[in-house]
Write a structure and sequence with these properties.
The chain is an alpha/beta fold. The chain has a single domain, classed as Rossmann fold (3-Layer(aba) Sandwich). It is built from 5 helices and 11 strands, in the order βαββαβαββββαβββα. A 9-stranded mixed β-sheet has the order 2-1-3-4-11-10-9-6-7, with helices on both faces. A two-stranded antiparallel sheet has the order 5-8. The longest helix is centred in the N-terminal third of the chain and has 11 residues. The protein is globular.
């Protein structure tokens, strides 16, 4: 599996993602510039990553301008043909803006930028400690969409305490139903606010991020 990491003006986690994939997960990585369009070197068994940061300065709405970049047009086509796409933090915002994932990321409930380690949980992985760093990470969707996500098992992670309990006090941004990440109905597009690429090195005393990539089938 090859990985392509898209670099937007304002991306600041692209090299973190590249390093985690290359050094810690031993993957081939190709960096992709936002003004380019060519994804012919990838097939549906590969993965395109939209990294964290502040694409185009978040001057309009987080991810709203990046959604119209030349590379994103190719990424949307790639995803619609079954290719794997992962969006982390700002990348998650871009996926929602592009319509590849439902919902929207709103300003944190406390109206402050939050940067810390949190726990996220699902039935398969249990509780994992993964860093977050965002000011607009509060996932929101209408009840019908949320019910559908729950019914189809499209919620990949929820914020939890260290024991895996999904409780309000473990929610760092006010996300509806403690949602930290979701996937599309075809299970090939994934978005999450926490940064798994910041938890893949033993030197950081945390390799829980590797379990995230494994769970998503991107290991």
């Amino acid at each position: 599996m090859k990985f392509g990491v898209v670099v937007f003006p304002g991306s600041n986690c692209d090299r973190d993602m590249q390093d985690a994939l290359q050094q810690d997960l031993n993957k081939e990585v190709i960096m992709l510039w936002h003004k380019d369009k060519d994804l012919s070197m990838f097939d549906k068994n590969d993965c395109i990553v939209l990294p964290g940061g502040f694409s185009y300065g978040d001057y309009l709405r987080c991810g709203a301008i990046a959604r119209f970049s030349p590379m994103m047009q190719s990424v949307i086509d790639f995803a619609n043909k079954g290719g794997k796409v992962l969006g982390v933090c700002n990348g998650f915002q871009i996926l929602c803006e592009s319509g590849l994932l439902p919902g929207v990321l709103l300003q944190n409930a406390n109206q402050q930028f939050v940067c810390k380690n949190v726990f996220i949980h699902n039935r398969e992985t249990g509780a994992l400690q993964i860093p977050i760093a965002h000011g607009e990470g509060r996932f929101h969707a209408d009840d019908a969409t949320l019910d559908l996500l729950e019914k189809n098992d499209q919620i990949i992670f929820k914020y939890s305490d260290a024991d895996g309990n999904i409780i309000p006090t473990a929610n760092p941004n006010g996300a509806v139903r403690n949602i930290a990440g979701i996937r599309n109905g075809n299970n090939n597009v994934f978005g999450m606010m926490p940064h798994p690429e910041r938890a893949t090195a033993s030197a950081l005393n945390n390799i829980d991020g590797k379990k995230v990539f494994e769970f998503l089938g991107l290991n």
